[in-house]
Amino acid sequence: MTEAKLERVAHGTERIRCHIFGYALCPYLANKFQSDLYRIPLVLKPLTYAFAALVMQVSAAMVACLIVRKLKELDLVTVLKTRK
Questions:
Q1: What are the distances in angstroms from CA 34 to CA 13, 24, 27, 41, 44?
Q2: Residues 18, 8: contact at Cβ < 8 Å?
């Protein structure tokens, strides 16, 4: 990451861009998934954001556990002795 991008992430502007993109993506996807047989209404409530945050937290924790398990399996001496 460049220094400018790290600064934007630290100040939250990158987060705001993702939020705006996600908010614009919802009506687009709801419209594209509609057909003559069914309609998908767009409902965005605070609980929706809470659920999305919870899903992200749980999936990040699961990935972190998998990475820690893989790192514990590595033999540090063998890894450091191997050539690139």
A1: 33, 17, 11, 9, 17
A2: no
Question: Which pLDDT tens digit goes with each residue over 20-74?
Answer: 777 788 888 888 888 878 887 888 888 888 888 899 899 999 999 999 999 888 8
Is this prediction's pTM over 0.70?
Answer: no
67, two tokens: 């990475």
What is the spatial distance between Cα 55 and Cα 53, in angstroms, rounded to a whole number?
A: 5
Co-location of 20 and 49 in the same domain:
no
Residue numbers of the domain that contains 84? 45-84
Q: Are 26 and 42 in contact (CB under 8 A)?
A: yes
Q: Are residues 49 and 32 in the same domain?
A: no
Q: List CB contacts of 14: < 8 A, sequence separation 6 or more.
A: 5, 8
